[in-house]
Design goal:
Layout: H1 2-27, H2 57-69, H3 72-96, H4 101-111, H5 117-120, H6 122-128, H7 134-155, H8 158-163, H9 165-194, H10 201-213, H11 217-226, H12 233-261, H13 265-295, H14 303-323, H15 328-337, H16 343-372, H17 381-408, H18 413-423, H19 427-439, H20 445-460, H21 462-486
Helix pairs in contact: 3-4, 3-16, 4-16, 7-15, 7-16, 9-10, 9-12, 9-17, 10-12, 11-12, 12-13, 12-18, 14-15, 17-18, 17-20, 18-21, 19-20
Length: 487
């Protein structure tokens, strides 16, 4: 031990002394007569400041630390720390009161935005989320949503669609057409007073229709799984309905975004044709080959290579759909849909991609959405009345349309109502759609904030309503048994 310590000290002394001697010798050398020209040489050179005295040492150190803290990377890391901690805290809190964690994470985003933090302490908000950092935060949040949409695409189960095709198509399309119609009708009433001046009526109305038609497939699936309903007739039917709804709504959104982004009819037609070509290649050409390829790969033993290949594939698909003028998220969603149907392989990918995305990247998306949500814009009773009206229209269209269509297919009123409640959940997928509309300039800040509140309310009401239906059924069953025993 002593021998090693002595060797360590000798190495430090020997080489440290050598470095000190060479630096001293080099400092006496004259400057080079010719130097390679660099861009920075054209800038004025600031002479080095004198080292601080004892009195200024504290302020000097504080200044250096403050400058380092305002570095873009330091700001981003600080934002991630705050966002992840607050999202986890609120998620756990909402789980304890019987709500999905995603509701708490959505609320956490709003709390960190101008609606609460910006009102209570504008200085703190501007320190944590300066305007210059929003670009990096937005791009990082989009990566999380891309991975999330890929997982959503993988969760679509073709077997559910085949088994429940008749009821699923009818219920899901009714749950899209009815709220879509109500969304367009609502647009007629609010366009002149609330829409952005740069937005024409058609894209505004189409986007409002789509925003009211969305179902949060992942949230719905998790609610069913938590309640042990996934394998039941009601659960499998609802999942099939939500799957058809998801595919239809995203295809409609892709068309609307293509029309909005295009500079004319010809450009929009070209974008739609390229999208159809891309969908055909993915489903009919790549999907069979991917299924065949995965049978020949031992993905558990080559996990890093497989994950890297899948991520590259997802990003390529996202990049392509972004380039042709739809949206990167549609490419990620379709990449998930064409993944091999092997349950083991999909579980392998989900376990490795979903955990990090849900824990770290999606909370950033919630926070970014919260920074855009300005509840304080609803500063009069007319605004709150309109917000309540939007929520009621959304519930009537989605819950009512789904319930009536389900009842028409022969499902009991209780199960039909449960299907309507589940289809009415909007959650994270709604926020994704709303952010797309906000980025395109279709949804102004006021409407955006109202729609975010609508997404929160419609998702939060699912759990209590399902519990109410279950307790009602149990009460009726007990009453029926008591009547039967009395007879």
């Amino acid at each position: 031990m002593n021998r090693n310590l002595l060797f360590y000290i000798l190495v430090l002394l020997l080489f440290g002394t050598g470095i000190w001697i060479m630096l001293g010798s080099g400092s006496r050398l004259s400057r080079p007569e010719t130097a390679v020209e660099r861009p920075s040489e054209s800038l004025p050179v600031t002479p080095p400041s004198a080292p601080p005295g004892p009195k200024d040492a504290t302020s000097y150190i504080g200044k250096i630390l403050h400058e380092n803290l305002r570095d873009p990377l330091s700001i981003l890391l600080l934002q991630m720390i705050v966002i992840i901690l607050v999202a986890r805290l609120m998620g756990d809190l909402f789980v304890k009161i019987g709500q999905p964690a995603v509701i708490g994470e959505m609320v956490a985003g709003i709390l960190l935005g101008p609606s609460l933090l910006g009102t209570l302490s504008p200085e703190t908000m501007s320190f944590l989320f300066p305007a210059s950092s929003m670009g990096a935060l937005r791009l990082l949040s989009q990566i999380g949503v891309i991975i999330f949409m890929f997982v959503v695409g993988m969760e679509l189960n073709a077997q559910h669609l085949r088994e429940k095709a008749h009821a699923a198509v009818m219920i899901s399309h009714a749950s899209i057409v009815v709220p879509f119609f109500l969304g367009v009708a609502l647009s007629l009433a609010i366009y002149r007073t609330l829409a952005s001046p740069d937005t024409s009526f058609t894209p505004f109305a189409l986007f409002m229709g789509i925003a009211l038609s969305i179902t949060a497939f992942p949230v719905l699936a998790r609610i069913l799984e938590e309640r042990g309903m996934s394998k039941s007739y009601l659960g499998s039917t609802t999942i099939a309905c939500a799957a058809v709804d998801d595919v239809t709504a995203w295809c409609m959104l892709a068309v609307v975004v293509a029309v909005v982004k295009a500079n004319g009819v010809e450009a929009s037609i070209l974008t739609i044709l390229l999208a159809l070509f891309f969908i055909g290649i993915m489903i009919f050409l790549l999907k069979p080959r991917l299924s065949q390829a995965i049978k020949e790969v031992e993905y558990e033993t080559k996990a890093k290579r497989v994950i890297a290949s899948v991520l590259a594939f997802v990003l390529i698909c996202s990049c392509f759909t972004e380039i042709i003028g739809i949206h990167a998220l549609f490419g990620a969603f379709l990449a998930g849909v064409v993944m091999p149907s092997s349950a083991g392989f999909r579980s392998f990918l989900r376990n490795r991609l979903e955990a990090f995305s849900l824990a770290a990247l999606l909370p950033i998306f919630f926070a970014f959405t919260g920074l855009r949500t300005q509840v304080n814009l609803l500063n009069d009773w007319q605004s709150w009345l309109l917000c309540i009206g939007i929520i009621m229209v959304a519930i009537a269209g989605k819950l009512g349309g789904s319930m009536l269509a389900a009842r028409f297919t022969g499902i009991s009123w209780e199960d039909a109502f449960s299907i309507g409640v589940l289809m009415n959940t909007r959650g994270l997928v709604e926020l994704i759609v709303l952010n797309i509309g906000y980025d395109l300039g279709i949804l102004p800040a006021r409407i955006f904030s109202m729609m975010v509140l609508m997404a929160l309310v419609t998702t939060a009401m699912a759990g209590p309503l399902l519990s109410w239906v279950k307790s009602k059924e149990q009460t009726e069953s007990i009453l029926a048994q008591s009547v039967s025993s009395g007879d």
